[in-house]
Structures are given as structure tokens and as C-alpha cells.
Amino acid sequence: MSEPSGIPAAPPAVTPHRRRSVRRALVAVLGTLGLAAAAATAATPSANASAPTPPSGWTQVFIDDFDGAAGSGVDTSNWQYDTGTSYPGGAANWGTGEVESMTRSTSNVSLDGNGDLLITPRRDASGNWTSGRIETTRTDFRPPAGGKLRVQARIQMPDVTGAAGAGYWPAFWMLGAPYRGNYQNWPGVGELDIMENVQGLNKTWATMHCGTDPGGPCNETSGLGNSTACPGSTCQSGFHTYSMEWDRSVSPEAIRFYVDGANYQTVTAHQMDATTWANATDHGFFVILNVAMGGAFPAAFGGGPTSATEPGHPMVVDYVQVLTSSGSAGGGTTPPPTGNRDAYSAIQAESYDGQSGVSTESTTDTGGGQDIGSLSNGDWALYKGVDFGSTPATQFYGRVAGGAAGGVSGLVQVRLDSPTSTPIGSFAVANTGGWQSWRTVPANISAVTGTHDVYLTFSSGQPADFVNVNWFDFGH
């Protein structure tokens, strides 16, 4: 959520794929992430859990489990309240057209006594809305050089759907530290939206904002975003863990977004120029939780709030946790070789010499390390100096996984010496059961001898991502 100078037009229809397209009608708004306090007649969710113990290699640098007496406010050593309808001197209505006024009242922001934070939108007899928005006092959350940062929260979105949910806009997100006290330098200082939701839809959006507004390398004011349905229970009926992992141990540097451990959006440094990336990331960040009412994002999905909108449904936050890792847990990127590659030994996909539209990520496949992902129509990766020898290779084998939506598929193609040369072979792939559900797929190729630069190219009739690749090799 961000604070643009104007309200953007509604975006195109939201299509679940992991990268690139603009999925929301505004995502550039300094959003109001909300944990609304439950209505007096509503049952408080009881699925409380403590923040998980940091895994091996990770250090916990911030935690709030929201333990405290029912009806009390947040710990002000951890959080500060945003109040009113804007930052001092900032854009009106938080820059998004939302209609509520933020308060520090415990009717809008409070603990429930069971280890949860509640941010509750409320409407008075005159139809005026209030809600809550808090942000961490700390502004220094960033990964160490060569390490990682993980920011996560276990959240149940406001349990309201349909007409009763019109105008609801809960969010969990981060802003670059230079924004605090300035309020005029968005989006250049960077914004990372870990979770946003509108209208009670069973969907979570994740987005990075950067560069200039409008347009620029982050396609502002929409940003580089994606959305997905919550796995298992809906976003509104159960708790889910929303997380962001910023990985400086790989090249290109990557920022990945997850729901319940499933990666559905990744942005890498290669998706923009070096100066834009540095301006958006070369500093600390602070965390924001809020629930807005109305504004440009809800407007893209029917608008609201209306007379049918029900106040008093809280966003419930079980915990917020920040971790760092100084190592290269999960395996670093395999560098390109210094000599020729053997066509008949596994060529690690992340060891490319050049690419377009490709990102790397940790893999759960046998052997660990990295795979290449976010692959969709028009992307390619280059592997120089592949030696096929004097006996013709006639087979190609690719280790692939796909979590594409139904009806989305594409081709993995092999080309020699140019990304636009005629493919010597290809195979089709669709959903394999998930983005880390791996299988080895064979394909016949035209006979090849000698040494060539090999291009893997990816072609699809849809714009959505359709495949990840872990490794490939050739056979006779």
C-alpha cells in the first residue's frame, strides 16, 4: 500500500500468476493495514500460536506475540500509531482515497487477551468510519550483506465477505526508512506489500513498488505484484502465515513473497536498473499493519464501503516476526563455468551466462541449491560453450516443476547460438502439482555435434508463469 499523488485507474482483471502483471487497482498506496477489533457480538478467533522458533542459521531480530490484557493497546516500544487521514504534510486520505480516520482508540486497535492484535473498522451513527494503523518504531529491518531477511506474520483477515465486505482493505507491508519524516519520496524509497486484500475476497496480493510514479521500472502506481488464493481455508475463515524473504545471497538479488510457505511472487534486481534497485533497497525498512476502508484498490473490485458494509470485523494478527540470516542457507547460485560445459552432465539452470525475465530461488529438489523460476512467454536463459562432442546428441532432458493455474501451459525450447534461432527440440509442461513438485521430462532434438551456446527459451500462449527449471542435460 502506498501513497501516490493520485488515484490510479482500475487495473485489468486479476489473473493468478507469479510475476509481472499488475493485479490490483492501486497497489501503490501507503496502505492501512488493519487489525480491527472484533465487534462486541462477534466471537474472537482462538487459533493462537506463538511465533515459531527460528530455524537453524537464522536469528530473530524482532518479535511481538501481542501478549497482554484484553482491551489494552499495543506495546509502544515496538509500535507507533498513525492517526487521522494522512501523515503530517502528506497526501490526503493516505494518498489512496480511503475514507476512514485512523485512531489510537482501543475500540480500533487493541489486544484480545489471547495473544492476538485486533484492528477493527467501526462506523458511527453518522456513517463516519474509524480504523487503526500501526507501524514499527524501528526502521532498520534489512538483510545483512550476503544474507537474508525474513518478515512474517500470522493473520486472519476480517471475517466478512460479499456485500458486507465492500470497502474492507487489510494489509501487512513495509516502507523504506527514508520515507519516515519525508512523506514525499514514494515510490523511489521502496515499498514491499507482503499481504493485501480487498472486499473479503479469498485472495492475497504481494507487490514491490519502486522508481518513479507514474510508470517507471515498477509500473507505478500498480507496482510489480501478483495474487493467489489462500491455501486450505479461506483468507477470512482461518489464520495464514504471510511472509517476505529478501535474499542477498543470490545473484541477482531477489525478494520473494509467500503464503503458508508457498512462493507466489518474486522480484529480482535484474527487473530494473541498478540505480532504481539501490534507491529502493539500500536502507532499512519499517513494518506497517492496518485496515483501510474504501479507496482505489476496493474501487477496482466493486467499491465501498456502502450501506450494506458491516463494521466491526477485525483483522486478527497472532504475531509479527523478523529474522535475519548471515549465511547462504538453501544454497547459493551456481556460477557459470570458466570452460566448456559437458552436454551430458547436469547443467544447473541457475548457472546461466545471460538471461531475460529469469529469477533464481531456493529449491526443495534433491540436492538443494537453486532453480530458475518466474518463467513465462518470451523469457530465456543462455548457457555458453556446451560441448556435444562428435557423436550426435538426440535427446534433451529437463528437470522442471510448475504450479500454473488451470489452462496455463507452455513450451520449454532448446535453441542453438541465438535466442531467436529455430528450436532443435521442445517439450510442453503445465501444472506438475506445484512450483517445487519436480519431474524430469524428455524430448527428442535434432542431431547436434560440436560446441554451441545453448538457449533455453520459454513460449506460451498466456502471459502467466508456467514453469521452473532446476537442471538439464542431453543424451544420445
Describe this structure in words.
By secondary structure, this protein is mainly β. A hairpin with a 5-residue loop joins strand 6 and strand 7. The N terminus is likely disordered. Helices cover 3% and strands 38% of the residues.
Helix content: under 10%
What is the average of the pLDDT values? 88
Structural class: mainly beta
Overall spatial form: elongated
Name the beta content range: 35-45%
* N-to-C CA distance: 53 Å
* Rg of Cα set: 23 Å
Alpha plus pi helix count? 2
Count every beta strand, where a strand is a DSSP E run of 2 or more residues: 30
Q: Pick out the low-confidence regions.
A: 3-46
Main attributes?
seven-stranded antiparallel beta sheet; 476 residues; mainly beta; elongated; 30 strands; eight-stranded antiparallel beta sheet
Give the gist of this structure.
The chain has 476 residues and is mainly β. The protein contains two helices and 30 strands.
Topology:
Elements: E1 59-64, E2 79-81, E3 101-102, E4 109-111, E5 117-119, E6 122-123, E7 129-131, E8 133-136, E9 148-156, E10 168-176, E11 191-196, E12 204-209, E13 224-228, E14 240-247, E15 254-259, E16 262-268, H1 274-281, E17 285-293, H2 296-299, E18 315-325, E19 341-342, E20 347-348, E21 354-356, E22 359-362, E23 370-375, E24 380-387, E25 393-402, E26 410-416, E27 425-429, E28 434-448, E29 451-459, E30 467-475
Parallel strand pairs: 3-7, 19-24
Antiparallel strand pairs: 1-18, 2-8, 4-5, 5-18, 6-7, 8-17, 9-14, 9-18, 10-11, 10-17, 11-12, 12-13, 14-15, 15-16, 20-30, 21-24, 22-23, 23-30, 24-29, 25-28, 25-30, 26-27, 26-29
